[in-house]
Input
Amino acid sequence: MTDTQPEKPERPKPTARRRALGWGIQIAIALAIFLLVRAWMARDMVEGPAPEFEAELLDGSPVALSDYVGDEPVLLHFWATWCPICRLEEGEIVRLSDSHPVLTVAMQSGEPQEVIDHLNENERELATINDPQGQLAARYGVQGVPASFIINTDGDVVFRKQGYAPPLELRFRLWLARWL
Output
């Protein structure tokens, strides 16, 4: 008695075109999921006219959003001393402030001296408002840090993002905001 099994038909190998199409579909699905998650994270953040505020910088000088809105788009950046992602992007925010108006808000990071110590320890110079109870953050709908808003010359929020913002993306959005 011979034990023979029928031969399985040979499966055709996918062509390069078919493989590329499969990869393209997978990339499109991943990109769509990424964009949906990003939109969901920013759902409560302010849109349209940026809420005006008056506050005090860490050095004690008064500041208002209107002091920054003018000839160029402004980056309003919320961060915290206890946030590892904020620390990761801190250096780039400082470099960005060399060429663009940047105002930062230290959200729920303790007393002003603690925030000053954090900035000095990391050799960072930024125009920073201390927001120990998160009141300013709440006005902007910030639920977590880091959070970034780009405000155009008309005082409108034209870009908002919660989470890490790649440096090139922020630079591109600031450039683009000149025409929005």
Remarks:
- The radius of gyration is 24 Å.
- The chain has one domain: 48-179.
